[in-house]
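Handout, section 4.2: multi-component inputs.
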Amino acid sequence: MIHLYRVSKIYEGIPALREITVSVDKGEFVFVTGPSGAGKTTLLKILFCAEHADEGQIIIQGMNTFRLNSSSIPYLRRNMGFVFQDYKLLPHKTVFENIALALKVIGAPHGDIERRALLSLKKVGMEKKEHLTPLKLSGGEQQRVAIARALVNEPQILLADEPTGNLDPQSGQEVFRLFKDINMKGTTVIVATHDWETVQKMQRRIVAMERGKIMSDTKDPVLDRAAMTKFKQEPSSR
Amino acid sequence: MRGYGPIYTVMEAYHGLRANSLVNLLATGTISMAMLIVGFFLVVFLNLQAAVGAMGERLEVSVYLKDGLTAQEMDFILTRIKSEPGVKKAVFLPKAEALAMLKKELKGQEALMEGLGENPLPDSYEVTVDAKYADTVKMEVLTKKISKFFGVEDVSYGRQGVAVLERILKLVTYGGIALAVLLGVTVVFIISNSVRLALYSRGQEIELMQWIGATRWFIMGPFLVEGMLVVVLGTSLSVGILAVLFHALPQEVVLFLSGPGGLEFLPPPVIAYMIGGGGALGLVGGLVSVNKFLE
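Output:
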């Protein structure tokens, strides 16, 4: 579903990604972990075509993103949901309107919008708060609304960048439980996170990064053995 | 945008106009002032053009004869005039009759005629020319030829009046075009600035829309419609103000300014072009800002 081959990205002379090669299968759940500056966010941004890689090949759902022109990017994004650390909800719109916007953007028929938005809110248990504005919700609730928005178009891939970074541990657990449910229904989920404890508990594929490189991948036993030893020695840094 | 799109675009543009009402109100007011100047020039231009056209359509040529011609000589001149291609009719106007006509035209200003003594007007032939010969070049050739006939003092067909009006018309046309270009650029500048303010106030929403798969046109649409609506409103307002001012002109001023066809307001097609053109300028202004912002 997603293939990256020797992908590099440099910001003002400083490498953010160094020859990253990784593949993610359909329906996989992948954690991307690593300290700040490891390149997790850059990697997700490149997958979401918010950044262009300087080198390498990126194939997403059979499309080579290097060959995509800017007018095709919105259509690629419609097959992906993105969950942000800061939720990115519009404060002056209600919960329902925030979800509906994602449907309006893709030109969904007017009659479908209400049904699909409410269904998506129901999936994250926020259907009773559809009339509230985001500022009246807790951080955990806001993140659930953001997840509902990411899911409303039934994307095949869900990307999340530090989705629990602003949440208390309990809300964080709820968010991860939601991701697990979403993944169980067949959506490929890629989560960039610092939350090492949850990552270990969830027992899913882990891609650990450091200084723009993949240091370990639990799917790749050779790469994994050496790196996991290092990770276990320095748990406090992540 | 499929089906749902246009309604969404117009509604979003309406919400955008309301959200930045003060900025849009100021932009509408400024644009209406600019378009008022354009409208004023158009009124002057169209009336002047009509006057020039009407004068050019006067197909009568006056052939003034020298004094002391015999009846035979006058008949000979008449025959020569009638034999010229394009001449439809030629009627003799004796000097006494010409004076009587002049007196009639100057009724109420008889003082001008005092002290004239002997009738200064010459005998003349009033020549009617075929409509096919109505253009300036053919008339010029004809009058030049007749003026060289034996016994002819002068020939006139009001060319001096037409020439003066044509010069003024040229001046108004060039001045108007220069002013319209200048004001057009101003309108684009005003709109691009008001749209830019709207874009910055909704930057968060635009960024989010890009993340969730909105196409460029989906994002641009409401802002372009917003820009167009502001100019269309401003132009409509300027036409309204111009109409009120036009109809409030005192009768004396109207009579003074009137051409042969009377003083006319802007015809509906011209108003439609003004509003349509204004809308196009609004579109350009919007495009300038939105493109810059999205890049």
